[in-house]
Amino acid sequence: MTYFMPGEKNANEMLISFMEGVTKRNPGEPEFHQAVHEFAANIFPFIEDKPIYQEMRIMERLVEPDRAIYFRVPWTDDAGNIRVNRGFRVQFNNSIGPYKGGIRFHPNVNMSVLKFLGFEQIFKNSLTGLPMGGGKGGANFNPKGKSDNEIMRFCQSFITELYRHIGSYTDVPAGDIGVGAREIGFMFGQYKRITNQFSGVLTGKGLQYGGSKLRTEATGYGAAIFLNEMMKESGRFIEGKRISISGAGNVATYAAEKILQLGAKPITLSDSSGFIHDPEGITQEKLEWVKELKQERRGQINEYVKEYPTATFHEGRPWNVPTDIAMPCATQNELSLGDANTLIKNGIIAISEGANMPCELDAVNAFKQANVLLGPAKAANAGGVGISGLEMSQNSTRVSWSNEKVEQHLNQMIERIHAQCVEHGRSENGVDYVKGANIAGFIKVADAMLAYGHV
Ligand code: NDP
């Protein structure tokens, strides 16, 4: 890495030489480079006149995880074949609390994907105001088409190695793509069995064994509440707006549910098979049907059009459907520059990112230039980890809060996150939420790192 002394280079020169170092030291990790670049582009101008962050090499230290492990996950399928996958955990930064972040089971999981997710998680967790560091884990395991018994054996094998690296004061994983209530149950059961401890080591647990009310709903609800806050801040209203949503999993379905409660109209959902467009609107009854399809029957979204023939099914992603607002809630880099230009041409007003890094960097820049409100993932989808943080509090004090109490916390948390973005992102053109979230998330972590000295 090329070091430079404070004042020697301007923000843009610092960014260029910093990114050269990051790219060189992390070859073949494009998702990680992208997440760091988006963040660093806002942070270098911010620290240009704050030499202490430069002297203490805060940015250079932030991009190196505290540790990253990978391990073998052997398991036996129903036919008796021995199968082997690779498990990972990236413990990125615990300056403000135990590592916290989800576990993803998807065939495209690798170190680059988990480092980008773990890096983003540091600042998202900081924005919640709760004492949580950043981490992420997972496996290149494809849960699709596997029986419940196969999923159980995989989860048990995965946790049989991971258990020694986690703990309620060390690292507290949760769910993510491919990891929901069923998988968390299997992992928590095996953890409890190995350690003989019932502790708050995983969040997203079932309500019968230490889970928090509203944890399942929190990410999607939070992304919709954040969107509503952005609309109000810009003097607009969400009521009656058409909203295109991608994904049909946990985040997408609960984002749609809250959107409905706020008086707007979800018109699309998607999965890896394609997307459905329902111009009449996806009602609560239709959403319940989708939840059952995806969570119980584990079917594909194209079945929707047989049940609701006013809708149409298409391959690809839903961004060419004319809409007022978009909520990408499936996966990273699912919205390209071309998609952004189509949405802008069709008059889009706002984007709220339910998924992590769903918009490519060029798409983010296009939205900014067109003055489209853009709620970045680390702010807009922080409600999930926020309620996970409250699940940790409930577990350590051995209490269970009511729905109303958790909901009130969620609303207040999202309002506070929104306010921090406005404080650090306001300019003469309105609010740059990406910049606001990056700077607000950075300050707390960076100041804690300053307090610790060179560690
Ligand atoms: P789920 O597994 O519940 O749902 C994911 C959805 O996205 C599914 O409909 C899936 O389709 C679709 N999808 C996943 N990968 C792809 C792909 N490569 N191409 C097309 N479609 C895809 O995951 P979540 O809803 O939990 O997570 C969605 C996003 O939200 C992720 O980016 C995650 O990191 C982020 N997030 C989740 C949080 C949570 O609390 N769960 C918290 C914060 C962020 P199919 O059903 O066909 O697999």
Describe the 3D structure.
With 455 residues, the protein is α/β, with parallel strands linked by helices. The protein folds into 3 domains: 87 residues, Glutamate Dehydrogenase, Chain A, domain 3 (Orthogonal Bundle); 132 residues, Leucine Dehydrogenase, chain A, domain 1 (Rossmann fold); 160 residues, NAD(P)-binding Rossmann-like Domain (Rossmann fold), CATH 3.40.50.720. The chain is 48% helix and 16% strand. The strands form 3 sheets. The protein has a 7-stranded mixed β-sheet with strand order 9-8-7-6-10-11-12, with helices on both faces. Strand 3, helix 5 and strand 4 form a beta-alpha-beta unit. Helix 2 crosses helix 17 and helix 12 packs parallel to helix 13.
What are the main properties of this structure?
16% strand; Glutamate Dehydrogenase, Chain A, domain 3; 455 residues; 17 helices; Rossmann fold; 48% helix; binds NADPH dihydro-nicotinamide-adenine-dinucleotide phosphate; five-stranded mixed β-sheet; seven-stranded mixed β-sheet; alpha/beta
Quick rundown:
The chain is of the alpha/beta class and 455 residues long. Helices cover 48% and strands 16% of the residues.
